[in-house]
Amino acid sequence: MRRRAFLISAAATASVWMIGPALAAGRVMVVYKDPNCGCCHEWAAAMKGAGFQVKIENVDDLSAIKQRHAIPDEMQGCHTAVVGGYYVEGHVPLDAVERLLAERPDIAGIAVPGMPVGSLGMGDDPRASYDVFAVNRDGTSAIYQSVRPKG
Questions:
Q1: Long-range contacts (CB closer than 8 Å, 24 or more residues apart) made by 68-72
Q2: Which of 11, 30, 67, 96 is deepest in the core (most CB within 10 A)?
Q3: Domain that holds residue 121
Q4: How many domains does the chain have?
């Protein structure tokens, strides 16, 4: 019986050891931003604080990045992140990023167009009101999540 317990324990440990890096890979995020943008830095810092392994790529021409990922013009924000095979465009809240990675929908990415006041990285405004969009591979979009004032 001890041998069986040992073998089961060893197999479980090996599984965790092998699966761990694969799970961690989903937490690696590359953030493409303008080198002079402070709000993008704040957003990336929030992602890092939430446990993402964040690599910042300062680029002078963000339009090339947005074109590479086929982000529709009307969905563009001030920075583009790539994580888990999706793009995360603009000041997307942490809970929407976490939901995206947990649910793994068949979409290209999620986006918060523009730079809404009170969005993550754009100040702490309890009156913040904006939408997060799911963007399909064909460029169409639908509301993925809404952020509305609390209280």
A1: 69/108, 69/109, 70/108, 70/137, 70/139, 71/108, 71/109, 71/111, 71/135, 72/135, 72/139, 72/141
A2: 96
A3: 29-147
A4: 1
Cα–Cα distances in angstroms (integers) from residue 132 to residues 2, 12, 79, 113, 116, in the given order: 53, 39, 15, 8, 11
Does the predicted TM-score (pTM) go above 0.85? no
Q: Is residue 127 part of a domain?
A: yes
Indicate whether 136 belongs to any domain: yes
In a domain, 4, yes or no: no
